[in-house]
Write a structure and sequence with these properties.
Elements lengths: L1 E13 L9 E17 L3 E19 L4 E21 L2 E20 L4 E4 L2 E15 L4 E15 L2 E6 L5 E6 L4 E19 L2 E12 L1 E4 L11 E4 L7 E13 L5 E18 L15 E17 L4 E15 L9 E2 L6 E10 L4 E10 L3 E2 L4 E5 L2 E5 L6 E2 L3 E11 L8 E9 L7 E5 L3 E2 L5 E2 L13 E4 L4 E9 L1
Antiparallel strand pairs: 1-2, 2-3, 3-4, 4-5, 5-6, 5-7, 7-8, 8-11, 9-10, 11-12, 12-15, 13-14, 15-16, 16-17, 17-18, 18-19, 18-20, 20-21, 21-26, 22-25, 23-24, 26-27, 27-32, 28-31, 29-30
């Protein structure tokens, strides 16, 4: 079998669509994939993929003045995976992946000048093997090992920092390597059948991450991005993940109940110094600090797998904390992704042979944000002071989506085509995307900050929303 996939998409965000003097962002993604599957007899299966992708991002300070920040990533890779069905009780997988990356972390365009952070070329080699083995009638074992090797090479300029973060500019030639790193990533999973349709599972995974999104924000959303690979200044991030699951399936396999507890220990996470300067800064890596993190939690869900109405009801209790020696006075604090409670419901109803109706409901704790704890004046300027990071939260996140799918063809025809109607956030609940503290002009003509206690203003931090509700229509044709 030969598969060809092409994709191109673009998204735009504007602070004020009727005013070109305000900012916004553009996100452009394109990708192409050729995949070849081949079966060798009954015991071997080969899956080979060639792919390329490009991500192009613009952050506009002013649309009318053509002043913007641009960041790009281009990626191409070749991957081949061989599956061997050794026996009824043993399946083996072996894989190889070669990737190249071209980073343009940031170019600042203004009417009178242009400046840029030096581009970086990277390559990655991945080798892996995995075995899925039935040891006994009750015990199943999955184990594997993944080797990743990352390298930054080619002509570039790199600022290297000492322990006091004093920079030294180092130039690398076309055939020189500025950074390399190799990681071993083992994984192990055990599944034990307690009795009929009851299972206990335990797993361990170690993962590595070499690509980093740099955005220093007081709120979870930030329309400014810098993408950087691991380097001498940015150690690769890694995580050790532990999971324990209990699964129970009803006798007729109509219902499935599952409970999970998990713990994740993370290394070399990225944080930012106070008032970090990221845009148009060739010394941007000196604004970063690295530390440790951990997350843990409980997940419970019930799935109805059969019948006219199917769906899933789930609840997650999860916490996430980070610790940096040089940030937040060396005290642990909630990470940007700390979301203690999440409750969701997914339902799908087959009304008849042609109509399917679905709904999705989610309630979740708001993500953490950092708000000022006070203000002071310096040289006549009003300055916010931040004592504790992620000290407050956005409001409760609420969303309900509905969709209906109508199949246009009759059953058992050679081709299938259908129309999908959907509305995201059908109740138009305004979920804040971020909170900001801007100055405004009061009745006396003075510029003040809404939460400035020195002039007795009520706490009225400004919020921004993405949309109320989002309708869409799509047509699908399969042959």
């Amino acid at each position: 079998h030969l598969y060809v996939t092409l994709y191109n998409g673009e998204d735009q965000f504007r602070f004020n669509k009727n005013n070109d003097d305000t900012g916004g962002a553009d996100y452009q993604n394109s990708s192409s994939t050729i995949r070849w599957n081949h079966t060798f007899g009954t015991k071997a299966f080969l899956n080979t993929t060639l792919a390329s992708s490009k991500y192009n991002y613009n952050a506009h300070a002013s649309l009318s003045q053509e002043e913007y920040w641009n960041s790009k990533i281009e990626n191409a890779f070749a991957k081949s995976e061989l599956t061997l069905y050794h026996s009824q009780d043993l399946t083996l997988k072996y894989g190889l992946k070669l990737s190249t990356y071209q980073f343009e972390p940031g170019i600042y365009h203004a009417p009178t000048y242009t400046s840029a952070i030096a581009p970086i070329q990277s390559g990655e080699l991945v080798l892996y093997g995995n075995a899925d083995q039935q040891l006994t009638s009750r015990l199943k074992l999955n184990y594997g090992l993944r080797l990743t090797s990352w390298r930054n090479s080619g002509r570039t300029e790199v600022y290297e920092f000492d322990e006091q973060y004093n920079p030294t500019l180092v130039n690398y030639g076309e055939k020189e390597t500025s950074f390399s790193h190799t990681s071993l990533e083992p994984r192990l999973a055990l599944s034990y059948k307690l009795k009929e349709l009851n299972y206990l599972k335990a797993s361990y995974d170690r993962t590595s991450q070499y690509l980093n999104l740099i955005n220093n924000s007081l709120s979870p959303f930030n329309y400014f991005e810098v993408w950087l690979p691991a380097s001498k200044n940015i150690k690769p991030q890694s995580a050790n993940i532990y999971n324990l699951s209990y699964i129970r399936v009803s006798k007729k396999e109509t219902y499935k109940m599952q409970g999970d507890v998990f713990f994740k220990q993370m290394n070399n996470l990225i944080g930012y110094i106070d008032h970090a300067f990221l845009m148009n800064n060739p010394l941007v890596e000196g604004e970063l600090r690295q530390g440790e993190g951990s997350s843990y939690g409980l997940e419970l869900n019930v799935t109805k797998q059969k019948g006219r109405i199917t769906g899933q009801l789930g609840y997650t209790l999860a916490r996430s904390f980070v610790l940096f020696d040089d940030l937040n006075n060396g005290v642990s604090y909630r990470s940007n992704y700390d979301r203690p409670h999440t409750l969701f419901l997914n339902l799908l109803m087959k009304a008849n042979d042609r109509w399917e109706i679905s709904t999705n409901v989610i309630l979740a704790s708001g993500l953490p944000i950092t708000t000022p704890s006070g203000f002071y004046y310096y040289q006549g300027q009003q300055i916010p002071q931040y004592n504790t990071r992620n000290n407050q939260r956005l409001p409760l996140y609420q969303r309900m989506d509905v969709a209906a799918t109508y199949r246009l063809n009759k059953l058992h025809q050679r081709f299938t085509h259908y129309v999908n109607f959907s509305i995201m956030n059908v109740l138009a609940h305004q979920n804040p995307m971020y909170v900001y503290f801007n100055k405004y002009e009061n009745a006396q003509g003075e510029l003040v900050i809404p939460v400035d206690a020195t002039n007795n203003q009520q706490l009225t931090a400004a919020t921004k929303y993405v949309y109320g509700f989002l309708p869409s229509v799509s047509y699908h044709f399969k042959f």
